[in-house]
Amino acid sequence: MSDIAYHSENQTETASVRPSSAENFEKLRPLPRISVQAFAESDGLLRTIERCGQDRRMSKVNLRITKGGVGAAVNMFASAPTPNLIIMEVASTSHDLMSDLAPLAEVCDPTTKVVLVGHHNDISLYRELIRNGISEYMVAPVSMADIIGVIATIFVDPDAEPLGRSIAFLGAKGGVGSSTIAHNCAWDISRLFSSETILADLDLPFGTANIDFDQDPAQGMAEAVYAPDRLDEVFLDRLLSKCSEHLSLLAAPATLERTYELERSAFSPMIEVVRRNAPVTVLDVPHAWSGWTETLMAEVDEIVLTAVPDLANLRNTKNLFDALRKLRPNDRPPHLVLNQVGMPKRPEIAPADFCEPLEAEPCAIVTFDSQLFGNAANSGRMIGEMEPKSAAAETFSQIAHIVTGRVEMKKRRKPGLSGLKSLLGRK
Questions:
Q1: How far is CA 192 from CA 8, 109, 212, 230, 396, in A?
Q2: Is residue 4 part of a domain?
Q3: In this prediction, what percent of the chain has a pLDDT beyond 70?
Q4: Which of 155, 175, 255, 327 is such that its CA lies 20 to 30 A from the CA of 84?
Q5: Of 320, 302, 315, 307, whose CA–CA distance to 366 is shortest?
Q6: Tell me: the pLDDT tens digits for 53-101?
Q7: Is the previous residue joined to 19 through a cis bond, with omega within 30 degrees of 0?
Q8: What is the model's pTM?
C-alpha cells in the first residue's frame, strides 16, 4: 500500500475524517476515470456504496462491490491486479487490525490507495494506519457524501482549476420560451456578477441564440460536436462569438443542410472543455427526450424547466420531474419557471394548482408581455437592455441569482389541493 501526503497533526478528537458533509454534497466535483473495488461486510455499507455507484459524480468510475472483508480481498487480488482504490470494511479490534491487514499489503500494487471503514473510533489506531500507508480511515456509519468526498480528496487535484458550473435550460413543451429564459439569464449572469459565461445553443437545426444576440458566427456548435478530437481551449476560442464583455456564444448552425443523428455522449466532450474554460456555462437544450438529452441531464450541475400554465405542460413537467428524480436521486429537483402567465383570453391553471402535484415551487413566474418580449426578440437585445427596470428584468435577475447559488429560493406556503394530483397519478 502506497504512502500518501496527509496531515494528521490536527486530528485530535476523532479518528474519522469527514471531508464533506451532506449539505455540501452537491458541491462535490465529478470523479475521474478510476477503478474502485469495494468490500463490504455489513448490508448497510453495501447499500450505501451501491447508491454511490448510481450517483452522477461517479459516472466515469468503474466501481465493483463484493460482499466480504480482508479475506475476500486477499483471495481476489492474489491472481488479479489491484484497482486504483480499495474501499474495505473492517470489523477487527484495534489490537488485531494491523496484523489482519498484513496479507492485503502483500498483494496490493504500490500505487493502490486503500480506504478503511471501521467500527472503532480510536485516534491512536487512525494515526498508525496513516503512517502505514492507509489513505483514509472512517468510522461507520458513513454516508454517500462521506464516501464520494473521500474519493475526491484522494483523486481530484486540489490545485487544479475548478470546473465551471453548468446550467441546462429545458422546456416542458415546444414554444414555452425556454430559450428566451436561458438567453436572458446567461446575459444577466455575465452582467450582474462580471463572470465569464458561455451560452451554448444545443438546438442544431433550429437554434435561436444567434438571432437573439444579433450574431452571425461562421462556426459554432456543429464543429464542436462533430470534431471532438480537435476540441481544446484554442479551438474553442475560434468557435466562440463574443456577445458582450463577459458573455460568449457557441451558436447552433440553425440550418437544415444536414440531419443530426447524435450519440448519447455527443455533447459530453464539448461540455467538459467549456466547463474548464468558463465559470458558468448555460446550455440551451431543445425540447426533446432522447439518449443524448438524458445523458446531458445526468451530467449538468443545475436544471431549469420552463413551462406555461396549461394541462399539457403540467403533464410533461410532472413526467420530467419524475424522470429527473430517478436520474439524479442525490441532487435537488429542477428549478421551475412558469412563463407567459396571465395571457389574455387563455384559460390557465393557477400557479398554486400547477405546482401542487409537482411537490415543488416555482423559482420564478414570468408574466405575459408580448410587446416587451417581441420588441426585444426583433431587435436582438435582452430584456435587461430594453427595459432594465421592468418586472421581467427583475425576474431574470432573480433566476440568475438562484441558479448560480448566490441566493436560496424562499419557501412558500404549500398550495391547497387541486384534484390534479390524482389525475396525473393515473396509470
A1: 42, 51, 19, 33, 11
A2: no
A3: 87
A4: 327
A5: 307
A6: 999 888 888 899 999 999 999 999 988 888 899 999 998 776 678 888 8
A7: no
A8: 0.74
Q: What is the pLDDT of residues 370-391, one digit of tens each?
A: 999 999 999 999 999 999 999 9
Same domain, 96 and 177: no
Domain range for 114: 22-155
How far does the chain reach from its first CA to its final CA, in angstroms?
54
* pLDDT at residue 1 tops 50: no
Query: Rounded to whole angstroms, how far apart are CA atoms 396 and 49?
Result: 40
Give the number of other Cβ atoms within 10 Å of residue 405's Cβ: 12
23: DSSP letter: G
Give the rounded distance of the alpha carbon of 341 from its chain centre. Answer: 29
Backbone angles phi, psi at 267, to 5 degrees: -95, -5
- Answer yes or no: is pLDDT of 338 > 50: yes
- Report yes or no on 6 lying in a domain: no
CA distance 81 to 34: 14
Contacts of 255-259 spanning 24+ positions with Cβ under 8 A: 255/205, 256/205
Q: Is residue 317 domain-shared with residue 374, that is, in the same domain?
A: yes
* Overall number of domains in the chain: 2
In 170-280, where does DSSP find H-type helix?
Answer: 178-192, 209-212, 221-226, 233-239, 268-277
Q: For residue 301, with 0-12 CB atoms within 10 Å meaning exposed, 13-18 middle and 19 or more buried, which class applies?
A: buried
Closest CA to 255 of 293, 291, 216, 288: 216
Grid cell at residue 134: 492507509
Instruction: Please tell me the predicted confidence (pLDDT) of residue 323.
Output: 96
**Mean of all residue pLDDT scores within the chain:** 86
Give CA–CA dist 366/364, Å, rounded: 6
Computed from CA positions of residues 213, 216, 219, 221, in that sequence, does the dihedral angle turn out positive or negative?
positive
Residues 172 and 313 sit within 8 Å (Cβ to Cβ): yes
Rounded to an integer, what distance in angstroms lies between the CA atom of residue 162 and that of residue 51?
Answer: 25
Calpha distance 150→153 (Å, rounded): 5
Cβ proximity of 335 and 363 under 8 Å: yes
The verdict on residue 39 lying in a domain is: yes
DSSP helix/strand/coil, 265: coil
* Domain end (from 118, 133, 155): 155
Kindly report the number of other CB atoms within 10 A of residue 229's CB atom. 7
236 and 139 in a single domain? The answer is no
151 shares a domain with 44: yes
Q: Is 376 exposed, middle or buried (0-12, 13-18, 19+ CB in 10 A)?
A: buried
